[in-house]
Design the sequence.
């Protein structure tokens, strides 16, 4: 059995990724949700866990922790789940192709400014990459989308009231 962590609990793991790059991106997607979404974005926003494999051998699995309004992390690979989920490799899609094999120059943990002892609200991990690329794995809840983990390359709207906790890198000029 693998242990789950909140991002601030494994900052040393994130720090060890400095200068390394993502070599594979997989997701375990909820099929009912996946096929209802627009084909242009469904690989990134469909309900399901996200696994990233890095050049130093680290494998991180991100999933939503609804009780803490957070993204949680396991240091393990995704496994096949029930029939209504499908494990898919998205490494060659249009989102991941320009982001794979780019060195990680900074990592930030995104935390709600309203976080407290009851709700950790560590809702995302932001990877800044060489070549002005970024990957954000974030907990999302709202609209007609259930609580889930999304992947984006967009800068998140600051109206979400969050602060960045820098793991490493000079992020002030890159945001």
Sequence:
């Amino acid at each position: 059995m693998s242990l789950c962590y909140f991002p601030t609990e494994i900052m040393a793991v994130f720090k060890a990724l400095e200068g390394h790059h993502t070599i594979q991106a997989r997701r375990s997607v909820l099929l009912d949700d996946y096929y209802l979404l627009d084909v242009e974005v469904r690989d990134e926003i469909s309900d399901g866990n996200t696994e990233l494999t890095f050049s130093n051998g680290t494998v991180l699995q991100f999933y939503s922790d609804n009780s803490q309004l957070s993204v949680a992390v396991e240091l393990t690979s995704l496994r096949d789940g029930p029939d209504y989920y499908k494990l898919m490799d998205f490494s060659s899609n249009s989102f991941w192709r320009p982001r794979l094999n780019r060195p990680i120059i900074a990592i930030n943990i995104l935390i709600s400014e309203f976080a407290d002892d009851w709700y950790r609200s560590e809702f995302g991990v932001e990877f800044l990459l060489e070549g002005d690329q970024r990957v954000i794995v974030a907990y999302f809840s709202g609209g007609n989308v259930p609580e889930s983990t999304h992947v984006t390359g967009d800068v998140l709207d600051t109206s979400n009231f969050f602060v960045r906790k820098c793991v490493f890198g000079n992020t002030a000029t890159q945001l």
Summary: Residues 4-168 form one domain. Residues 20 and 33 are 33 Å apart (CA to CA).
